[in-house]
Structures are given as structure tokens and as C-alpha cells.
Amino acid sequence: MLTRLAITVSLGIAALLALAAMTSVPQGVGAARAIAAADDPARIADLALDRAFDATVATREIEEALAAGDTELARSFLDLAAERAVALPPALTQKVEAAEQDAATASSHAASFARGFVTGKPEDIASTAGMLTGDLFVFGDVRDVVREGWHGLSGEEVDKVVLGLAGTGIAVTAGVYFSAGLAAPARAGLSVIKAAKRTERIGLPLLRLIKLEKREKLIEFVGDLGRVQQRTSTRGALDTLKVAERPADMARLAGLAAAKGSKTRAIVKLLGRGAIFLTSSAFTLASWMFWALINLFGFCAACKRTAERMTLRHCERRRLKRLKAQLTLASAAAPA
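and the corresponding C-alpha cells:
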């Protein structure tokens, strides 16, 4: 006979497996979604933001950006919050808009534009526009060639990377005019790399790889960087250079920028390389899926075994009742 203890044990095992499934199954489902999104940077970013972005994080990042005078980054986080339906205090939105208005009415824009045009250093939006304008009219590349040549004649160290990029830039700029603007992303990308090299915003590993790339691969890389710049901003492109560890990463960042636009800066600032690559290895994700399936199978098996034992016990009790009834009838019918 099946005892109540056996049924209780089966129910206990099923309950424990159900509690474990509440953790393992969502993780397994999340792992499956992550593996499916491995080749889509925008989807990877969305999955990571589900865990890392909320109103508290958005408020903190916007406040920090405003304190640093980076209204563009603050706007990027504001746009990201709007896209993900994250409610922010109206006063914070008004604060960002007021900061943008103050930046737009600054009286030093002309001087900053001229400084960027002459020096090629992007210190703010106006100087960035000046730098890009100078490069588009070849002045910036000629300036860099002359500057590095003068350094060589003076016995000073020559920045071969900037010199090589300037030479490539002269050829690409000619291509911009001959191709009616089709080579514009590559032109913008070269300007961003030169600016990153001067301001030390590009990692040494990536810089070494760029030096070893062939001209065709370099043009492809700066083209991807230029597309990031066009979809975000020059500062956004500079931020992506901090994340990229090899030229192929820039293609994924360009895909992210194409999907997210102005929100790319906020995503890269918050997630780093997690914006374009899975933060967990494929083995770890596969393990989550495996254990989620095992847990789900065990829970179903425990429920099945419990139902069988309860059914058998019920049938056994009914059989015993019938036997007792038959015995009672037999005893009553027996002669005294």
C-alpha cells in the first residue's frame, strides 16, 4: 500500500523543483534569447539594458553629465529613457533643456570654431565642427603633414600615425568630391581617429592594430567610424573608440549606432563592450539552458509521479472499501 509519507515526499520534491524553476527557467529563457541575439548589437544592448537601466541609473547619469558640462550625453540618456518608457522627473528634463539652451547661446562659438579649424582638437561642439570643416577642405590634412614634417626637421618626435592618416585623408577627401559625397563617412572617420590620437582617447592595442592594417582595411574601418559619427556625433565616435579593441568591433558599433542613433552615447557609456558583445560566454549561456531544461524535466517528472501515487492510493482505498463491504455482506449472509 502507498502511504501518505510517499505522496508527501513526492509533493515536497515537486515543490522544491518548482522553487528552483522560478530562478533557473527565466535564466534559461534569457540565455536562449541572448544566444539568438549574438549577431545583433542592438538586440544585445536591449537585453543588457533590461538589467542595467532604470530611472535611478538614468537620473544619476544625467546629473553627472550636466555637472561635467556634457549636455550632449545628458540628452542621450534622456532619449534612451524615453525610448524605454522610463519615467523621469519633469524638473530633470527641464534642467537638460535649459543647459542645452545655455550651450547654444554661448558667445565663444566663433572663437572655438576657429580654434578647432586651426588646431584640429575637438574640445566642444563648435571646435569639432571647425576641425571637420578644416579636414573636409584638405586644410586639416595639409596642416598635419606640415606640422609633423616640421617636427622631423626640428629633431622632434614625428607622430607617424597622424602623418599617415593625414596622407590618407588627402586622398579620401579627393574621393569625397569625385564620388559626390559617397566617401564622406571615411573622411569623417579619419578626422575622428586623428582627434582621438591627439587627445589620447584611443587604446594602444587598437592603435597598434590600425598601424598593421592594409589601406583597404583601414578605409573600411574609418568608414564604419564615420558612420558612427554621422549617426551620433564626433564625441560619440570618440567614445566608441574607447570600447573598440580591434577594427572589426567598429562594424558592430556602426550597426548599433544605425539602430540607436543619438542614444548610442548613453548605451556605450553605461554598458561598455557589453553594448556589442554578450557579457557571458556561450558555454555559460548553454549551461543555464541545460540546467533550466533539467530542472523543468525533473519538476514534470515529480508532478507525474505524485499524480500516479495519489491515483493509485485512491484506487487502493476504493478497492479496500469494496472488500470490506463484500466481507460485511458475506458475514451477514453466513448461517449462525
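(Above: one complete record from the training split.) The CA atoms of residues 35 and 282 lie 7 Å apart.
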